[in-house]
Structure formats: C-alpha cells, structure tokens
TrEMBL record:
Residues 80-119 form the 4Fe-4S His(Cys)3-ligated-type domain. It comes from the Bacteria. Residues 140-170, 181-212 form the 4Fe-4S ferredoxin-type domain. It comes from Phascolarctobacterium faecium. This is 2Fe-2S iron-sulfur cluster binding domain-containing protein. Residues 2-80 form the 2Fe-2S ferredoxin-type domain. The chain holds residues 1 to 238 of 574 of the full protein.
Length: 238
C-alpha cells in the first residue's frame, strides 16, 4: 500500500495515499469530532462538524471526505476551526428540542456530548418555524421523533447500504428537508425488517429502540409460550 507523509497539529503522520484526513488523524490518535460520519458507512460530508484547516485548501475542509496529500499540513484545533464547529452545533441546537434531560438518549447522545465538549451553554440563534412532527411509535420496535433529527443521513445509509431496505430517504428541500419514509408513512406501515440498525447509528434521540421490557416479561411468564429475546422484536415460537 502506497503511503504518504503529512503533518497534523505538528505531528508527522503516515497514512495510505487514498485515506481521508479524518482517517489519518484517527490512526495517529488525534481526535476530530464528527456527526454524520460513521466508520461503518460511506462518508457523506453533510454536517461540517469535522472541519479542519489544510494546506492547499482555500477554506476549511470536511476532514471525513477530504483526501490526504504528500506534505499536507493540517490543523484540527485552531480558533477558526473551533468557531466553525461551535456555529454548526449552535445552529443544530437552535432547532432541536430542549428536553435533553427527559430524552431516552441523554448521556449517550452525540450531539449533547459534542455541545458539552465545546462548552456550549447558550445558543445565539433562535430556531425557525418548521412543520411540527409528532412522535411515531407505530413500529413494534422503534420510536421515531423527527424533531430530534439532525439530518446526518446515517439511518438512510445504514438501511439502504447495509440492510438493503431503503426505508428512509431525504424529502423536501432546504430548511424544510426531512428524513422521510415513502409517502411519509408511519414506521409501522413501511417494509421494515426490525433490525434496529437505524436506531443504533442515530446520533441523537431521533430513532430509538422501543422499551419492550414489560411485553417481553409478560410473554416470558406465560407458560404456554417460549420467547427468544432478540435485539428487537421478541420473537415467539409456538
Ligand atoms: Fe464530516 Fe459530518 S462528520 S461532514
């Protein structure tokens, strides 16, 4: 494999010629925050949280999609970079429900953790008016709250590229963009394999697994049924 040498934050790093800056940085133990990126999915470069300064580029570049080059000098933590990241997170939070402490994902939410890492206590912006969405709990395994969706597209990619299902896709445009099922049907009405992958890659509480504990226990306690408990849903074997 052909390797190249670059410098990240003053540290000499060797990386495969076709690597991205993010991959090179992570291989050297240098942290760059990400949201839309997931190591098991194709990168999309959508959220711009992973921006860095790199020689040869006139603006900040998204490190998850920007390729390394021989002799490149990268800076991942300058004032300019941090200001851009703060802006990205503040804009996301401006239109995000402020119920973190009551959210099922609290403590395990990537957006919440990144905001904390950036020391964000106040948001400078007020969110714009958007079409309101109700919580969709129609799927036997998943609960979907579109108000918490940050449009990272991870659910779309994992469902399409890993599961081969394509339950989700982007719909509408600009500020009104949403992640939608076909014809905006409820999740309980679409062809879903109940694999739970969309919930596992969702960085926020937009898609979470339904807590079926009670249902599973009552089935287990029914002497006429044997229950195999899977990730979701519980499968009954008569
Ligand atoms: Fe790179 Fe979103 S993580 S653009």
């Amino acid at each position: 494999m052909e390797m190249i040498t670059l410098t990240i934050n003053g540290q000499t790093v060797q990386a495969p010629k076709n690597a991205t800056i993010l991959e090179a940085a992570r291989s050297a133990g240098i942290h760059i925050p990400t949201l839309c990126y997931h190591s098991e999915l194709a990168p999309e470069g959508a959220c711009r949280l992973c921006v860095v300064e790199a020689t040869g580029a006139r603006t900040l570049v998204a490190s998850c999609v920007y390729p390394v080059a021989e002799g490149m000098v990268v800076k991942t933590n300058t004032d300019k970079v941090r200001a851009a990241r703060r802006m990205v997170v503040e804009l996301l939070l401006a239109n995000h429900p402020k119920d973190c402490l009551a959210c099922q994902k609290s403590g395990d939410c990537e957006l919440q953790n990144i905001a904390a890492d950036l020391g964000l206590r106040k948001i400078r912006f007020e969110g714009g008016a958007r079409k309101a969405h109700t919580i969709d709990a129609s799927n036997p395994c998943l609960v979907r709250d579109q108000e918490k969706c940050i449009l990272c597209g991870r659910c779309i990619r994992v469902c399409r590229d890993v599961q081969g299902m394509s339950v989700y896709s982007f719909a509408e445009r600009g500020f009104d963009t949403i992640v939608s099922t076909a014809f905006e049907q409820d999740l309980g009405k679409v062809e879903c394999s109940y694999c739970g992958q969309c919930a596992s890659v969702c960085p926020t509480g937009a898609i979470v697994e339904k807590d079926d504990t009670e249902k599973v226990w009552s089935a287990i306690n029914d002497p006429d049924k044997i229950v195999i408990v899977q990730t979701a849903p519980a499968v009954r074997v008569a």
